DNA sequence: AAAAAATTGTTTGTATACAAAGGATTTAAA
DNA sequence: TTTAAATCCTTTGTATACAAACAATTTTTT
């Protein structure tokens, strides 16, 4: 750490990228036993928040490109984490739900994310944590 | 902004991901006229810092997987941004240099990054900027 | 020096990311 | 109402990301 040459540690794109890389990588490792990825976990959280969302709604909620989401949903359907059901009123739409298996693991999976968050923030004080989140939110 | 459901704005993995996504996307748009990506720009900055680095050295400097870097360097060689030369002492190694064309654009490209950084930070106070960078650095 | 270990870089396979274009369907306009 | 516009989602193409396995080449051990 902190052995980077002069300028890199001043570059926000670099710093944000590497901070994300670390958080993302740690969370992915934690999720590996479940056969889930960070992004797939995020989709489940979205669907637990509001089951039956369409891909477009999910895409907006998660601030994720629809083309990317399309692939993620495909894989999650194949691996049985979600279920797609056609909307009776609009044939363009498919409504998406967490599977039984996903709901069964919900408490466990949510606590994994909380644990991951705790790990990321454990080196910071209470004030720093609040400030850090605010700074990030203000960027989005 | 700030219309996300309850929990997402508390999740550091999510916040870091979206903050990075934004910074990364903005910088990529700015680089598009040059035919460069964020990552390729980063490689050039590394090589300007120390020309002749090996892929392994670059990989450590940029905290980037060697397999990923391999592909990036391939594309940059094809598009003429970098040049690879064999090391006379160790036939496993290739030393990497910025091309003439890259050096020619160096001042311009560096100021693009600076401008991008300015944009990212423009909504924050001087203290917030320093703190933000420190928090990110402490995470890496 | 011959065998074992380490290093360098590539390749393969899977999973994001996003731009751009396209097919199917619904809604709005003329 | 039938043409145009908008919406939903997928597909294609390019570029990261990273794990795992690999070939070529040193370096270390024995």
Outline the structure in words.
Two copies of one chain form a homodimer. Chain A has helices at 12-31, 38-49, 55-61, 66-78, 100-121, 126-139; strands at residues 53-54, 82-86, 94-98. Chain A has one domain (8-116): Winged helix-like DNA-binding domain superfamily/Winged helix DNA-binding domain (Arc Repressor Mutant, subunit A, Orthogonal Bundle). Chain A has six helices and three strands, in the order H-H-E-H-H-E-E-H-H. In chain A, a hairpin with a 7-residue loop joins strand 2 and strand 3 (94-98). Chain A is globular and about 55 Å long. Chains A and B meet through helix 1, helix 2, helix 5 and helix 6 of A and helix 1, helix 2, helix 5 and helix 6 of B. The structure holds a DNA duplex (30 and 30 nucleotides).
Number of helices of chain A: 6
- CATH class of chain A equals Mainly Alpha
Quick one: which chains have the greatest interface? A-B, 48 and 48 residues
Mean pLDDT of chain A: 92
Looking at CATH, the homologous superfamily of chain A is Winged helix-like DNA-binding domain superfamily/Winged helix DNA-binding domain
Q: What's the CATH topology label of chain A? A: Arc Repressor Mutant, subunit A
Largest sheet of chain A: 3 strands, antiparallel
Order of strands, main sheet of chain A, comes to 1-3-2
Instruction: Provide the number of structural domains of chain A.
Output: 1
Provide the β-strand percentage band of chain A.
Answer: 5-15%
Question: Span between N and C termini of chain A?
Answer: 26 Å
- Apparent shape of chain A: globular
Can you write the helix and strand succession of chain A as a string? HHEHHEEHH
The residue ranges of chain A in which pLDDT falls below 50 over 5 or more consecutive positions are none
């Amino acid at each position: 750490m902190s052995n980077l040459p002069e300028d890199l540690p001043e570059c926000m794109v670099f710093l944000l990228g590497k901070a994300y890389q670390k958080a993302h990588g740690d969370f992915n490792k934690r999720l590996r036993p479940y056969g889930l990825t960070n992004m797939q976990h995020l989709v489940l959280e979205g669907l637990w928040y509001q089951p039956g969302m369409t891909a477009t709604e999910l895409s907006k909620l998660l601030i994720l490109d629809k083309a990317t989401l399309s692939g993620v949903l495909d894989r999650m359907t194949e691996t049985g984490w979600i279920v797609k059901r056609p909307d009776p009123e609009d044939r363009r739409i498919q409504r998406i739900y967490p599977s039984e298996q996903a709901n069964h693991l919900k408490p466990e999976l949510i606590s994994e994310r909380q644990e991951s968050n705790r790990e990321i923030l454990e080196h910071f004080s209470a004030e720093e944590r609040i400030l850090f989140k605010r700074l990030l939110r203000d960027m989005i």
